[in-house]
Design brief:
Blueprint (H helix, E strand, L loop, with lengths): L3 E4 L2 E4 L4 E7 L8 E7 L6 E6 L6 E3 L7 E6 L4 E6 L8 E8 L13 E2 L3 E6 L1
Parallel strand pairs: 2-11
Antiparallel strand pairs: 1-3, 3-8, 4-5, 4-9, 5-6, 7-8, 9-10, 9-11
Length: 124
Amino acid sequence: QVQLVESGGGLVQAGGSLRLSCAASTRTFNTYAMGWFRQAPGREREFVAAISWTGGSTDYADSVKGRFTISRDNARNTVFLQMNSLKLGDTAIYYCAASAGGYSSSYYGLYDYWGQGTQVTVSS
């Protein structure tokens, strides 16, 4: 069982930045691909970004390309999501997820473990 704990969410003005972190409670963190998903009120959960187990491959939703960056620190069992140029439409609960498959994917069904989420609110 892998526990994932997100942090770093909050309230930010449009155009601002936030950095989300997700700490994993597993000694085999470096074998998992990691992903970030988000869910806004009244909408389905959607893919944001993913990174392979080595960190050598990343994938982004078109809506965040050029603004968000996913990275990982396997020594600290942590994955990050740097969010710049935030827009009102980025407001959502952001979830961290881990996939034992090891390869980054935008498909939520491939992820085995999920965090509780952290709220990101972008104001005008």
